[in-house]
Design brief:
By secondary structure, the protein is mostly beta strands. The protein contains one helix and 18 strands. A two-stranded antiparallel ribbon has the order 1-2. The chain has a two-stranded antiparallel ribbon with strand order 3-4.
């Protein structure tokens, strides 16, 4: 404090915020010492009040802890910073609002390829055909063969039955438009190669529509059978022979006579 002429009480005139003094017998505010850089000084301080908090910087004469926040897109994780240049650019995969002490990771299903992100909206939605696992992704991870994803996925999904995913980075749109298992073929879930007419023919006793219409083999109904593989329609199921019976669906030959 200081005491000009006419002072009525010892604490009537505190050293202003941004200054301090441990000396007695001061007569004017000009005799109070400017707060040093890296600290702040509340009014009436006898020593600097405290080190500058993380997420902020304190040039000489700082009056309060939050007076000088690090700008959005930067951060500082330690105390005692002295100037704005002490605030570092926000790291990739994160964003830093004003006064950040610890960068905030981009949430799952997003990524942040650039430094200096200022807000959540600077995190990019994960690309179709890729996954963004967990937090703080810098780049998306392409889906492996046998899997796919739509945009904004945290994880890749197993290729759907009736389709195949034979390339790295398959998107939902690619799978459903260009990777359809054709009529007479069967593609199980997780298919990672294009189907073969010999190896993936619809089994005998069944017929297979295109995968985008019906992904599962359809059994020839009771009263019919189908001895051949690769059948594509219900009409390919053969009526049971005279003198024989076909009492179960999905027969490749009559059940008996």
């Amino acid at each position: 404090h200081y005491c000009p002429v006419g002072t009525a009480a010892t604490t009537q005139f505190p050293c202003p915020a941004g200054t301090f003094s441990s000396q007695t017998d001061l007569v004017s505010a000009s005799e109070c010492t400017q707060c040093p850089k890296g600290s702040y000084c509340l009014a009436g301080a006898t020593v600097p009040t405290s080190e500058c908090p993380a997420g902020h910087y304190c040039p000489p004469g700082t009056t309060r802890a939050q007076e000088f926040p690090c700008p959005a897109g930067t951060y500082v994780g330690h105390t005692g910073s002295e100037r704005v240049e002490d605030c570092s650019s926000c790291v990739a995969g994160h964003y830093c609002p004003q006064a950040t002490s610890t960068p905030v990771p981009c949430p799952q299903a997003t990524y942040g390829p650039h430094t200096g992100n200022r807000q959540l909206s600077n995190c990019t939605v994960c690309d179709a055909g890729a996954a963004c696992f967990g937090l703080g992704n810098v780049e998306p991870t392409p889906c492996p063969t046998g899997a796919y994803s739509a945009a904004g996925a945290a994880n890749c999904s197993q290729c759907e039955p009736g389709f195949y995913c034979n390339g790295v980075g398959t998107s939902l749109e690619q799978m459903t438009l260009t990777m359809v298992c054709g009529p007479g073929l069967y593609c199980a879930a997780g298919r990672s190669t294009a189907p073969s007419g010999l190896l993936d023919a619809c089994p005998a006793g069944y017929y297979c529509l295109a995968g985008d219409i019906e992904p599962q083999p359809q059994a020839c109904p009771v009263g019919t059978y189908s001895p051949a593989v690769g059948r594509t329609a219900l009409l390919d199921c053969v009526p049971c022979l005279i003198g024989h019976y076909c009492d179960e669906p999905g027969l490749s030959a009559p059940a008996g006579t």
